[in-house]
């Protein structure tokens, strides 16, 4: 989850998010280098004692400052396209879950075998127990088996919503009448938080998403338990 | 043929990748399998054959389609107001 005064991304919990994180580090480093260089040049230009500063030309420097930026752009584009295609790869999911957005809660449906469906409401602040996170906890979590490719089909029952879990590198708009597919693999067990990412009315900020990745046996016992309770 | 399908259904995990619907929008994937299930049922039962091969389509649409959509469509089929051609 996010921390106060956090500057970077949340720790990655899926292989795709790890790649995105590293690419962001790479691109941001290039940005910092260029910005530092430009700042240095500005200061140098402004503080020089030289008087003949204008109407100069030089073929060499013109070539350098045309070719070098082109090279830098290629160095950014190649990893970017690699990740783009990586995210678009055909995967073979082990499990399909439907995440339906409502005003103002998510409901999850696991219908590969039995018809398991449940709602996931935010826990109000006054009902939190010590150690729980304000505005992020829900009464029922979306439990998934870890290290398994999971397909999530996102839709909405009323207005636009968006299902997002930053640590898994996932965000998908929930559009009524449309079924949007996204997929992820949770590389480690854990609890991953997200929030609705499309304005949807008064309680848009109060319909969080919690994904809990557990070993497969725990997932199987959880789903049997949920089916009994339903 | 029927036992190939039976095998596939026995080892069913979830709806597999369908090359007809390679993109993010899977709406048609869900709807097509729903249609195909009902068409398959209609076609096989009209010939007096077993409808168990149709179960594949049912497993797939159950995996993909939101339960509310399926309930709505089932209701429409009962009413006779279902918009698709079966």
TrEMBL record, chain A:
Cofactors required: Cu cation
Cofactor note: Binds a copper A center.
GO molecular function annotations of the record: copper ion binding; cytochrome-c oxidase activity; oxidoreductase activity
Keyword Metal-binding among record annotations: yes
GO (cellular component) term, any one: mitochondrial inner membrane
Residue ranges constituting the Cytochrome oxidase subunit II copper A binding domain according to the UniProt record: 92-225
PROSITE patterns: COX2, COX2_CUA, COX2_TM
PANTHER family: CYTOCHROME C OXIDASE SUBUNIT 2, CYTOCHROME C OXIDASE, SUBUNIT II
Protein name as it appears in the record: Cytochrome c oxidase subunit 2
Family: Belongs to the cytochrome c oxidase subunit 2 family.
Catalytic activity: 4 Fe(II)-[cytochrome c] + O2 + 8 H(+)(in) = 4 Fe(III)-[cytochrome c] + 2 H2O + 4 H(+)(out)
Domain of life, source organism: Eukaryota
Short name of any one Pfam family annotated for the protein: COX2
Domain annotation Cytochrome oxidase subunit II transmembrane region profile: ranges: 1-91
GO biological process assignments: ATP synthesis coupled electron transport
Keywords linked to the UniProt accession: Copper, Electron transport, Magnesium, Membrane, Metal-binding, Mitochondrion, Mitochondrion inner membrane, Respiratory chain, Translocase, Transmembrane, Transmembrane helix, Transport
Biological role: Component of the cytochrome c oxidase, the last enzyme in the mitochondrial electron transport chain which drives oxidative phosphorylation. The respiratory chain contains 3 multisubunit complexes succinate dehydrogenase (complex II, CII), ubiquinol-cytochrome c oxidoreductase (cytochrome b-c1 complex, complex III, CIII) and cytochrome c oxidase (complex IV, CIV), that cooperate to transfer electrons derived from NADH and succinate to molecular oxygen, creating an electrochemical gradient over the inner membrane that drives transmembrane transport and the ATP synthase.
InterPro entries: CcO_II, CcO_II-like_C, CcO_II_C, Copper_CuA, Cupredoxin, Cyt_c_oxidase_su2, Cyt_c_oxidase_su2_TM_dom, Cyt_c_oxidase_su2_TM_sf
TM region(s), chain numbering: 27-51, 63-85
Transmembrane helix recorded as keyword: yes
Subcellular location: Mitochondrion inner membrane
Membrane topology: Multi-pass membrane protein
From TrEMBL, chain B:
Principal location listed in the UniProt entry: mitochondrion
Compartment list: Mitochondrion
A Pfam family that the UniProt record links to this protein: COX6B
InterPro entries to which the protein is assigned, alphabetical: COX6B-like, CX6/COA6-like_sf, Cyt_c_oxidase_su6B
Disulfide bonds: 30-65, 40-54
Keywords: Disulfide bond, Mitochondrion
Keyword Phosphoprotein: no
Cellular component GO terms, alphabetical: mitochondrion; respiratory chain complex IV
Keyword Mitochondrion assigned: yes
Signal peptide range: none
Function per UniProt: Component of the cytochrome c oxidase, the last enzyme in the mitochondrial electron transport chain which drives oxidative phosphorylation.
Family statement: Belongs to the cytochrome c oxidase subunit 6B.
Name of the protein described by the UniProt record: Cytochrome c oxidase subunit
